[in-house]
Design goal:
The chain is of the alpha/beta class. The protein has 14 helices and twelve strands. The chain folds into two domains: about 1-20 and about 355-418, no CATH class; about 35-350, TIM Barrel, CATH 3.20.20. Helices cover about 45% and strands about 10% of the residues. The strands form three sheets. An eight-stranded parallel barrel has the order 1-2-3-4-6-8-9-12, surrounded by five helices. α2 (about 25-30) packs across α10, α3 packs parallel to α10 (about 335-350) and α11 (about 355-365) packs antiparallel against α12 (about 370-380). The structure holds L-rhamnitol and zinc ion. L-rhamnitol binds next to loops. Zinc ion binds near residues 225, 258 and 285.
């Protein structure tokens, strides 16, 4: 893209935004500071690097067999490094416990420790990335349909031990990187068919969580992620939204909103202002459900745009952690990353460029025609010129120019992985 054109368009856009009372320079500064927690699992279809043999399951599934997935830690790092050259801003990498640097050792989940993530910490430091973390209860012989909510004490204790260790690892990562490590806890626990002991499993999960959270840490933050249902677990999910919202509000834990984990017509954007009143912060897993929790690549659709707007309107960028969670194995995986990250940033840029002062005035005065009219007009304001300028300033590919870079990486690197 021609630099002069991008600059010219930016200057015009800036003036156009000023006319509706928006400072586009300020929006750019704010966008620059928004960190996205990039999920490591798009690179290898949620396989991880344990030597236990990932059993899949756990209610989630990557579909597709596009060639070139990362087969080891070196490849996943190389891939993420490539992705980072195509996105502006300072970001985070979100690791799952199964992505430890285990070498050729067999390290069971109740044995994971910070040393297995030392090389990640070192690498992240070199790349200017902060790390986030997740316990992993799926894809293991002891996963079954119930982990932390399992009435079998032996199995339950195994997962409690795993999750406690993950919290300690997160604490030590947070301390080492001098920035809190956000640890997400999602378990698939549930049942395929009609379940009669619903109360029992939820009671057990509550007790397991109380045990897991008994230790207070300073350098990590706990998030709990609800879900509507998982594949093969369609009738009952122990960790439902009611369950975690209740738990989070009572115990002041961060509730993770995965945009794929609700009824399809439910607005995730509308949850932001309620959660902000009753829970300390919010963690987002921005995804794109197609008919179900399909984990398609995040795009700039109304759902993503509305979500970003609600966060900005609530002035809550400081209380909301923005993470991605999708895994599409049917297209170029680096391309999937770049589309999702850039689209999420675009959504936040649009939100930051919203003429919110004027809109609020109309609303307060009961001028609803004017409010709707300005909302409609705002959709067509030249945000894309601001976006292109953001890319230019960050010295990354502008517009569709990144397609060729992904193609080159595929030709030179990922297509050679057999
Ligand atoms: C699953 C949850 C969870 C996972 C990751 C891999 O439905 O969304 O966040 O996708 O932990
Ligand atoms: Zn998620």
């Amino acid at each position: 893209m021609k630099k002069e054109l991008v600059e010219k368009a930016w200057e015009l856009a800036k003036e156009r935004y000023a006319a509706v009372g928006v400072d586009a320079d300020k929006a750019l500064d704010k966008l620059q500071k928004i960190s996205i927690s990039i999920h490591c699992w798009q690179a290898d279809d949620v396989t991880g690097f344990e030597n236990l043999g990932n059993l899949g399951g756990g209610g989630i599934q990557a579909t597709g067999n596009y060639p070139g997935k990362a087969r080891n830690i070196a490849e996943i790092r190389q891939d993420i490094e490539k992705v980072l050259t195509l996105v502006g801003g300072q970001h985070r990498l979100n690791l799952h416990a199964i992505y430890g640097d285990f070498g050729d050792k067999i390290v069971d989940r109740d044995q994971v420790e910070t040393s297995h993530f030392a090389s990640w910490l070192q690498w992240a430091k070199e790349k200017g990335l902060k790390l986030d973390f997740n316990s992993t209860s799926f894809g293991h012989p002891k996963s079954g349909d119930l982990t932390l909510a399992n009435p079998d004490k032996g199995i339950r204790d195994f997962w409690i031990e795993h999750t406690k260790r993950c919290r300690l690892i997160s604490e030590e990562i947070g301390k080492a990187q001098n920035d809190p490590c956000i640890m997400n806890l999602w378990i698939h626990d549930g049942s395929k068919d009609l379940t009669v002991n619903r109360y029992l499993y939820r009671k057990i999960l509550e007790q397991s969580l109380d045990d897991i959270f008994a230790t207070d840490y300073k350098h990590m933050k706990d998030c709990i992620e609800a879900k509507l249902f998982g594949i093969g677990l369609e009738s009952y999910t122990v960790g439902s939204y009611d369950f975690y919202l209740g738990y989070g509000a009572k115990k002041q834990k961060i509730v993770t909103l995965d945009t794929g984990h609700f009824h399809l017509s439910e607005s995730i954007a509308d949850k932001i202002s309620s959660l902000l009143l009753f829970t300390p912060e919010i963690m987002l897993h921005v995804s794109r459900p197609i008919r179900w929790d399909s984990d398609h690549v995040t795009i700039l659709n109304d759902d993503t745009a509305d979500l970003a707007k609600e966060i900005v309107r609530a002035d809550a960028l400081g209380r909301v952690h923005i993470g991605l969670d999708y895994f599409d194995a049917s297209i170029n995986r680096m391309g999937a990353y770049v589309i999702g990250i850039r689209s999420t940033q675009k959504a936040f840029l649009q939100a930051l460029l919203e003429p919110v002062d004027a809109l609020r005035k109309y609303e307060a005065a009961g001028q609803y025609f004017e409010r709707l009219a300005l909302l409609e007009e705002a959709k067509g304001l030249p945000w894309n010129a601001v976006w292109d300028y953001f890319c230019l300033k960050n010295n990354i590919a502008v517009g569709e120019d990144y397609i060729a870079e992904i193609q080159k990486y595929e030709k030179d690197v990922t297509s050679k992985r057999k």
